[in-house]
């Protein structure tokens, strides 16, 4: 179709203009959910010493089956020394293995004697049992975490156990979410019959916050060229990324592309062969700031945000392809869905796992891209390529969650 680029072309153009956001150092407690920007090397061998794995006694393995207890090896204490093969030390899980010991017998396989323990009659042990050897998990200076991973629970534990009190993470891009339109009024306060409450900024902020983007400022500007230029100029000075909604189609008051042009934001593309969201505009300026001007209709704005803005923001954190959730999940259609011959179609769906583990998408189309009251019952949308024939039941399609 004339002047329209495909979904894949739009994605590739955005990727080409996506820069790494840079890094910052934060305390470990603030690194949760952030993306690592450096390599973490092991501070020391893990375990750092031969470690007792069961509460019981530590012995030096021999034919002896009865032992005199010389003392107790507690966790957090330096190693005691085992004198002979008929001696033992009571040893606690997590303690260092006493010098001279090589084997641990769990307490439940022991019978107490006057001055120590004997093994249960039928108990057979293996030399070296219940000892976790120093360095069995990792060695000092091993690479444990690579840049570009999301700091989830296991990664945070690894950082902590290696003394990383301060962590170098990708800086979160600062994002302005700008609603445009005279008809828009705030959530709170009165609303007249011809007015609309601003919802796009909350939907967009929700999609971003769910992915860890929290440096967000919401702005509004009416349908006035000079005011639009002024607000966009301030937003460009303060933020890395601008997400606008509304004002990008053909209306007499759709000032956004012209205002951005005046401020030196170069258009990379305008309009994508898709529904909803066809009028989307994307541009950048010489400092590498990205401007996503999304169509105002709420379903269009949110769909474009999830399909294009979210992957670009994730990529700017340096997330690897398998870490980012950027690769969409493939699902199978549960019922047929109409397609459009010349446009890709994004169809809201609910998803469920069937008994065989296949994720099935149940189409739940909305009446128009302005009707979103029932969108909350959906989980995301599937992406159907242009086509004359309906997409049949069981057809595989990429799914993007809200
Ligand atoms: N002559 C043409 N008209 C339109 C075309 C076209 O190709 N030729 N495209 C249509 C399509 S498709 C869309 S989508 C819309 C996009 O228009 P705009 O981006 O200029 O958006 P607005 O006109 O400002 O608003 C559209 C609609 O959305 C409501 N809206 C806007 N912002 C918000 C918000 N923050 N929260 C809630 N609702 C919002 C607004 O009130 C309008 O109802 O253009 C078609 N027209
Ligand atoms: O393509 Mo517009 O984004 O449907 O209403």
From TrEMBL:
Pathway assignment: Cofactor biosynthesis; molybdopterin biosynthesis
Entry superkingdom: Bacteria
Record InterPro entries: MoaB/Mog-like_dom_sf (IPR036425), MoaB/Mog_dom (IPR001453), MoCF_biosynth_CS (IPR008284), MoeA-like (IPR038987), MoeA_C_domain_IV (IPR005111), MoeA_C_domain_IV_sf (IPR036688), MoeA_linker/N (IPR005110), MoeA_linker/N_sf (IPR036135)
Cofactor dependence: Mg(2+)
Keywords: Magnesium, Metal-binding, Molybdenum, Molybdenum cofactor biosynthesis, Transferase
GO molecular function: metal ion binding; molybdopterin molybdotransferase activity
GO BP field: Mo-molybdopterin cofactor biosynthetic process
Chemical reaction(s) catalysed: adenylyl-molybdopterin + molybdate = Mo-molybdopterin + AMP + H(+)
Repeat is among the record's keywords: no
Database matches in Pfam families: MoCF_biosynth, MoeA_C, MoeA_N
NCBIfam families: molyb_syn
Database matches in PANTHER family: GEPHYRIN, MOLYBDOPTERIN BIOSYNTHESIS PROTEIN
Function, as annotated: Catalyzes the insertion of molybdate into adenylated molybdopterin with the concomitant release of AMP.
The protein's name in its UniProt record: Molybdopterin molybdenumtransferase
Organism of this sequence: Brytella acorum
């Amino acid at each position: 179709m004339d002047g329209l680029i495909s979904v894949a072309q739009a994605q590739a153009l955005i990727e080409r203009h996506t820069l790494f956001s840079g890094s910052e150092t934060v305390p470990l407690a603030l690194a949760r959910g952030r993306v690592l920007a450096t390599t973490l090397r092991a501070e020391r061998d893990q375990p750092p010493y031969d470690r007792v794995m069961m509460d019981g006694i530590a012995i030096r393995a021999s034919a002896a089956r009865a032992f005199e207890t010389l003392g107790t090896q507690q966790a957090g204490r330096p190693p005691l020394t085992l004198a002979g093969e008929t001696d033992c030390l009571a040893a606690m899980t997590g303690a260092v293995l006493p010098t001279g010991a090589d084997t641990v017998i769990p307490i439940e396989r022991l019978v107490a004697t006057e001055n120590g323990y004997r093994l249960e009659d039928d108990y057979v042990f293996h030399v070296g049992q219940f000892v976790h050897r120093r360095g069995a998990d990792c060695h000092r200076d091993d690479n444990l975490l690579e840049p570009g991973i999301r700091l989830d629970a296991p990664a945070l534990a690894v950082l902590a156990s290696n003394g990383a009190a301060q962590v170098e993470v990708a800086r979160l891009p600062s994002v302005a979410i700008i609603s445009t339109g005279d008809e828009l009024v705030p959530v709170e306060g009165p609303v007249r019959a011809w007015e609309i409450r601003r919802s796009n900024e909350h939907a967009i902020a929700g999609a971003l916050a769910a992915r860890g983007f929290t440096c967000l400022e919401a702005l509004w500007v009416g349908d006035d060229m000079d005011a639009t230029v002024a607000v966009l100029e301030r937003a460009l000075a303060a933020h890395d990324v601008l997400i606008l909604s509304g004002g990008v189609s053909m209306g007499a008051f759709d000032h956004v592309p012209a205002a951005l042009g005046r401020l030196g934001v170069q258009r990379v593309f305008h309009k994508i062969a898709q529904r909803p969201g066809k009028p989307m505009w994307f541009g950048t300026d010489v400092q590498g700031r990205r401007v996503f001007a999304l169509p105002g209709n709420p379903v269009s704005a949110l769909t474009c945000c999830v399909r294009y803005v979210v992957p670009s923001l994730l990529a700017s954190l340096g997330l690897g392809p398998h870490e980012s959730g950027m690769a969409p999940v493939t699902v199978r259609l549960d019922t047929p869905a109409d397609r459009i011959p010349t446009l890709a179609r994004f169809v809201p769906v609910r998803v469920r796992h069937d008994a065989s583990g296949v994720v099935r998408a149940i189409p739940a189309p909305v009446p128009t891209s302005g009707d979103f009251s029932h969108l909350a019952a959906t989980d995301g949308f599937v992406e159907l390529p242009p086509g004359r024939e309906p997409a049949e039941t069981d057809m595989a399609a990429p799914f993007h969650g809200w």
